[in-house]
Design brief:
- With 148 residues, the protein is of the alpha+beta class.
- It has a single domain, classed as 60s Ribosomal Protein L30, Chain: A (2-Layer Sandwich), CATH 3.30.1330.20.
- Helix content is 27%, strand content 21%.
- It is built from five helices and four strands; from the N terminus they run H-H-H-E-H-E-H-E-E.
- A four-stranded mixed beta sheet has the order 1-4-2-3, sandwiched between helices.
- Helix 4 packs across helix 5.
- The longest helix is centred in the C-terminal third of the chain and has 14 residues.
């Protein structure tokens, strides 16, 4: 439920990227036959455990791309991302979020296709999910989905 809540954040709350599911799909699908999304969520914690530890934006970003935080049994390192969307929630600075996303993209450039410019989309909603100070939801269109 946390993942679906994160994916639909832009529909339900005002933010810097107000869109609908159709716009998300249009931005994420470069060709009609390449439409297989992988979703992830961070922080993934057990009930009650999230109140004991504060999470930073770099940790959220790192966890978001971690295969253990994906909702599919697919490892992104076995493919390449065509497009990605990262939806952050909470009291965060957009500059810090964009810097972290740029950092991840440059460190892992071999996992992103180079023939689609600006293929990472970032959104920020200032309203955090219930029970957390901040979270991030990841939506990725990756060729790694072929291993399922």
């Amino acid at each position: 439920s946390a993942v679906m809540s994160g994916v639909t954040t832009c529909l339900r709350f005002p933010g810097q990227l107000n869109s609908d599911l159709r716009k998300i799909a249009v931005n994420m699908v470069p060709f009609p036959r390449l439409h297989f999304f992988m979703v992830g969520f961070a922080p993934l914690t057990s009930r009650g455990a999230h109140s004991f530890r504060a999470v930073t934006v770099p940790e959220l970003t790192q966890q978001m791309f971690d295969p253990k935080n994906m909702m599919a049994a697919s490892d992104f390192r076995n493919g390449r991302y065509l497009t990605c969307s990262a939806i952050f929630r909470g009291k965060l600075a957009m500059k810090e979020v964009e810097d972290q996303m740029r950092n991840v993209q440059s460190k892992n450039s071999s996992y992103f296709v180079e023939w689609i410019p600006n293929n990472v989309q970032t959104a920020l909603c200032s309203i955090p999910p219930r029970g957390l100070k901040m979270s991030s939801t990841f939506l990725g269109n990756s060729t790694a989905i072929q291993e399922l």
